[in-house]
Amino acid sequence: MQSKKEQKKIGQEKLQRIIEICMAIENHRIEPFLLNIDGVIKVVKKYFPQWEETDELNLDSEAIHHLASVIKLQSEWVKHRSTLLYTDPFLLEDKILKADKDEIINVFLRAWHPLVELEQLSPHSIAEAMRYWNGLLPMKERWKDFEVPEFNMGFTTRDELIKERVLGDKLFSEELEAYWQELKMKAKKNGAEAKMFYWDFIGADNYEETVKRAFLTSFLISYGYATLEIHPLEEEVFIKPFDKPNTKIHSQQLVSIPIAVTYANWQKWKKGELD
Amino acid sequence: MRKKTKGLYASKMKRATHMLFYRRHQKPGVKGWELHRALGADYPKVLEVLNDYLKSLDLQVKIVFEEEKTPNRKPTLEELNRARFYVTLRGELTPKESKMIGWRIDDLAGLAIAISHIISKKGQAPRKDVEEILSDKLPGWKVSMNIDRYIRYGYLQQDENKQLYLDWRTRAEVEEKALIDMLLRSEVQKTLFSENFEEGVEEQEDQ
Question: Is the ipTM of this complex over 0.95?
Answer without folding.
Answer: no
